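User: structure tokens for this one?
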Amino acid sequence: MNHDNDRRRFFRITDTLGVTYRVLDHESEPLDAKAAAVDALQLIASYNETIEASMNALRGTPAIVDAIDALNKKLDCILAQLELDNLMTKKVAHNVKEVNISAFGMAFMIDESLSSDTLLHLDLVFKPENLHVMAKAKVIDCDLYQDDAYYLRVEFLEMSQADQERLIQHIVQRQGILLRSLRDM
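Assistant:
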């Protein structure tokens, strides 16, 4: 997405949205967390098939079958609780921040210093639609603003086509609202 000529065609707006980020350990780490979740779900399904086959083979020994069945149900409960915790965390983890954003990157305040070229996974929530946009980004600069506040500037490196379209639509809509409010003044 690094196109210097294209940058001039897109507007930059200041907006308030939900932002959460995490530092990526590897450049090859997938942007979409769903891919990792699918792998885990496939593993769980495979283990459940193995447990079911083992329980069918052990049907003659009810105590063992009952014990395996109880352990399997216990694990299912633990997984359900972890999934619920994960969903709850996602709902409250987004800090509402004022950001300066364009189709190619954004800038916002954070509480920590990050080195240039650090890779981030961003999850943005546009208000009022609660529209999620995921992006892989690279830190361009992170300057000390005051005390323990840093002004972070990032460039978007990777984003799905659908998320990029959502981002551009949101920016254009917000810009239209801002221009109308200026005209009305």
